[in-house]
Amino acid sequence: MSAAPMSNSPSEDGLFTAVEYLQMASLGSRSMIVSIDNGNGTVGEIVMRDGEPWCAKDRLGHGEAAFLRLVAADSFSGGCHATVRGLRGPLAPRNLDGSLEHLLLEAARTWDEAQPRPAERPDSKARLRLDSFESLLEAGIDALLSKSFNDAYAAFSAAEAVRAGDRVVQGNLRRLRDLGYGDDGER
User: Fold this and answer.
1) Assign residue 35 a region: left if phi > 0, alpha if psi is -120 to 50, beta otherwise?
2) Is 92 left (phi over 0), alpha (psi -120 to 50) or beta?
């Protein structure tokens, strides 16, 4: 297989990303080396042997950590290109364990967790300025998910004032009271 340069963005010539090359190697039980280049030289390589992730190395190390960095550089960061070539000569020792799917999911999870989170939501008083029941209900649910239980109680109470008797709102208020939040014992 001859080396073909590629970009991680769609291109007119229809070339693939490094992840797509890895997936094709896996599906076809093929062996190949995928090299990632950032324009200033090779950043690293991922080797597939008989469709299985075999080894990875980059400028900072080898193994799964190198695999994660290389996939992130090619798929998420942009500015990198990949080339693919067949295996020739002796094979480096195996330093990757697990399926390609596992490694790709781990790369996506690691990348996602490394991203900055949006700024905190406005305080409960600002959220309570919302004028519709749906917005108040959503604010209560968001507060529950972020474990801001006092804010959740305040939002659900405001939603109850807008639409008395809503079963979802009443259920959430009851559970929050059972946990010690709200009118009976605001924490």
Assistant:
1) beta
2) beta
> Which residue from 28, 69, 10 is spatially nearest to 45, judged by alpha carbons?
69
Structure tokens at 88: 């020739």
Query: Which amino acid, one-letter code, is at 134?
Result: E
Strands 6-7 and 32-37, bridge-based pairing: unpaired
Task: Note down pLDDT in tens along the chain; length 187 residues.
Answer: 334 433 334 333 337 788 889 999 999 999 999 988 877 777 899 999 999 999 999 989 999 999 988 888 776 666 678 888 998 888 899 999 999 999 998 888 887 777 777 665 555 544 444 457 788 888 888 888 888 888 888 888 888 887 888 888 888 898 899 888 886 555 5
Q: Which of 180, 178, 147, 144 is nearest to 156 (CA)?
A: 144
Q: Give the dihedral sign, CA 143/148/154/156.
A: positive
